[in-house]
Structures are given as structure tokens and as C-alpha cells.
Amino acid sequence: MQAVTFEQVSKSWGSVVALGATDLAIPAHQFTVLLGPSGCGKTTTLRLIAGLEAPTSGQIQIFGRDVTHTHASARGVSMVFQSYALFPHLSVAENIVFGLRVRKLPQAVIDQKLKHVIDLLGLRQQIDRKPAQLSGGQQQRVALARALVADSQLCLMDEPLSNLDAQLRQEMRQELRALQQTLNLSVVYVTHDQIEAMSMADQVVLLNAGRVEQVAKPVDLYQRPASLFAAKFIGQTPMNIWPLDGHHLQSSTLRVQPPAGAKWLGVRPEALLLNATADQVFEGRIEKIEYTGADALVTLTSQGLSLIARIAGEAMTGLLGSSNASIGVGWASSAQHWFDEHGA
Ligand code: ATP
Fold first, then answer.
1. Does the interface ipTM go beyond 0.90?
2. What is the 13 CA–ligand 1 centroid distance (Å)?
3. How much is the pTM?
4. Alpha carbon of 277 to those of 64, 226, 273, 326, 340: distances in Å?
5. For a tag on the chain, would you pick the N or C end, based on fewer CB atoms within 10 A?
6. What is the CA(191)–ligand 1 centre distance, in A?
7. Element (H, E) at 12
8. Interval between CA 195 and ligand 1 midpoint (Å)
């Protein structure tokens, strides 16, 4: 069962194409993350699902029902925004049940739902406070509680953690993920933060300039990027990518065997090995070492190639201060990624 299906859905504003004609399937009861750089169309996609924007063309289904022309309030969807969008003059409890009151649910039902969600999100101490008297994390929990209390089949979240500090963001990531699993929710979550995407998602939809680049599980997105864009976008330090055309790589001592049609070779920084035996080895010169504690980024050059290796911190200790030194650099054949002239 799909929570959301796009059939050739597009959205333009005048000449700005926010989303080109797109087919998309978002599975029910999974955590799906829309990931991509600023302006790629993530928020537009989410707002199209919510019914806050009408598509320029195409059909949108939610749980198999055509909702293309259905008003946002009748789509059975709840939404959590980056800004939390809480009413400042209402208490935590009043904020959470606001939508239930609008729907004129019986008081007993409202009370029971409120109690459940307040316990779930640990907000009991705060129920009488106003949003201004809460920390950012607590405000985010209230926004979440308000979305959950609606019992909608589908929960949409637009960068809900981006206003929190790093520590809290990490805690909330785990909490959100646990909630989604416990409640068996279908979540569509927008972020430009790949760590968030990789750590939370069942499925990542990677967007680029209004197009879907790749739909994959985090591990597959990392290990089998379908395009140069995906390869460069995913990874803490960008993948090393070299053009093969008339390049030193083929004339050097490397035993690189590009498959037919390959125009680019990619190797992740963490797959580069120093001073080790590997399938592909050549001499490089250390240009720069950036030591961060847990690991170090080593910038190397060899025969006009520039590359970056990410090495475990301990392994670096012997190399510190050895800028300009010559060193063996290599990688396993299995760590090679090939891309054709179209970047695929
Ligand atoms: P960000 O991460 O910066 O929020 P995003 O991936 O969510 O970006 P969108 O907000 O979906 O991107 O925007 C996609 C494109 O559509 C951008 O070029 C944006 O400028 C444009 N756009 C979005 N909303 C409108 C609008 N109401 N009118 C005109 N252009 C818009």
C-alpha cells in the first residue's frame, strides 16, 4: 500500500519549475525523507501532498484516493513545520487540542487523546505553560503532539528539527524515529541535512533541481549512488571524482579497468587507504592534514590528481607533521564507482 502516489505531478510558478513532471511512490507505514539542496523542490513536494499547493499537472493519491482536487483539511494529513506554528496566547494543552476542538470532538475524547499524547511526548510538566515559556525542544514536542493527536494517516514534517541545537537534534531524531515505529505512522520528512536523512529514513527520495535523482534506502544511496549528483551530495566529505578521458589514471601505473562507457571514476575519502596494500596503489604526496580527533582529512596529490582521504585519527598519529611526504595511496576495486558521460 502506498501512502502517497504522484503520477506525472508538476508544479511551476510562471517560468520557475519547482517540480518537473514526477512519478513517485511513498510507502505506507514508513519513514520517507525528501532530501536535497536548497531550492530543489522538497517543500513544494510536501505542500503538494498536504494540499497547500495545487499541482500544475498530474494526479496525487493518498492511500489510493485521488486527492488532486481535495481541500487540505479533507486529506487526512497532519503537518509539522520548522517554525512550530504554535499559538502564542494558548497553553500547551490548548495548542495540542486546538484542531480537535475545531472538529467539535466530544470533551471526553479530547481529554483522553490529550492525556495519551502528553504522556507519549513527556509534556505533563508543561501543559499549562505558554509556548514562550518553553525551550525549543519542548515547543517542537508540542508541535509534534498536535500533529499526532489528530490521528491522521499521514504525517508531513518540514525541517522540524532545524531550530534545535546539535545535541537536542540528535535526541529528537531518535525520538521521532521511535515514535514513527511505535505508532506505525506514515511519515514524509523534508530535510537538507543528509545525516538526518541517513539516520532516520527507511527510504530517501533525493531531489535535484525539481527532479528525483534517486529513491533508495540510505545504505543503497551511499553504496550505490545512481548519479554523479547523488555521489557528490551523499557523504560527509564529497567523493573523489576524476574524469577518465585522456587522464593520467589510464597511463599511470594504476590497474584501473573502466567498464565500457565510463567517463568518471569515484572513490569515497574513507575508502582511500594510506601505506596499505590494495588493488590500486600509486605514490602520492601529502599536501595537507586536517586532524579532527576521531579522524583526519588528508589532502594528497599525485600526477596532477588531487584527492582527499579520510583516515582514522589513531592511524594518523604517525603521519602528523609529515606534509610533503611521499606515501602509497590505494583503494579496493570494490570501492570504485563508475559514471558515464551523463553522470549516471
Ligand atoms: P529549501 O531547502 O531552501 O527550503 P526546497 O528544496 O524546499 O528549498 P522549494 O521551497 O520547494 O525548495 O522551492 C523550489 C523552487 O520553487 C525554488 O526555486 C523556489 O524559489 C521556487 N518557489 C517556491 N515557492 C514559490 C512561490 N510561491 N512562487 C514562486 N517560486 C516559488
1. yes
2. 10
3. 0.89
4. 54, 29, 8, 15, 28
5. N
6. 13
7. strand 2-13
8. 22
